[in-house]
Amino acid sequence: MFVRGRTVPVTDEAINKIKAMIVQGELTPGSRLPREADLADRLGLSRNSLREAVKALSLIRVLDVRQGDGTYVTSLAPDLLLETIGFVVDFHQDDTVLQFLEVRRVLEPAATEMAATRMTDGEVTELRAILAELGDAPTVEALVANDLRFHGHIAAGSGNRVLCSLIDSLSGPTTRARIWRGLTQEGAVRRTREQHEAICEAIEARQPEVARAWATVHVAGVEQWLRNALGEPEEPTTPA
What we know:
Domain HTH gntR-type: 8-76
Strand order of the largest sheet: 1-2
Pfam families: FCD, GntR
Keywords: DNA-binding, Transcription, Transcription regulation
Protein name: FadR/GntR family transcriptional regulator
Organism: Plantactinospora sonchi
């Protein structure tokens, strides 16, 4: 098959055809695919290429192959499909950590702003309880673990499952940088706790813009520290 002068591999063609069936509503979440021979004939594919396409789509959680039962379309829930991002993220190199922090600086303040208006009173109470779990003199490792739970709870509280899944996928690569900062930068632990408290208070007070501002300061602080530690130039500031 040719598209704009290039050959599309038969497996890609098969993937595209199955994808089209899902997008067009012929196959819906939870539905079972027709028998392999029937589907291959219907789509004009070899059974081999269809088999490879099914294998590829099962790896990215679009299809669920159940031995002895058949192949089904998964729920297609965002958190399920975005799990594959976490797999890709796991292969990051140390020199890309800054890029992950830059993405966090874009996404987490937005999630925090949304959480300030969408979190239930019970969820806010749980957020406060997460902060209260730390003792007066936590280790850096305990603080970072608490930090991950704190931000994960806020992301979930945004009410946006796609945003929550993206933030969760991006948390891993920055964990070591957070620990490194806590061990080497004077006052980092104290500042982290103060900023968490300020974020929590803004969410409790239902002040989305303040919550967003504190979240930006919080993530940007880690990013700027890492830039300095790596000898990277500071980002240019945007004129007011």
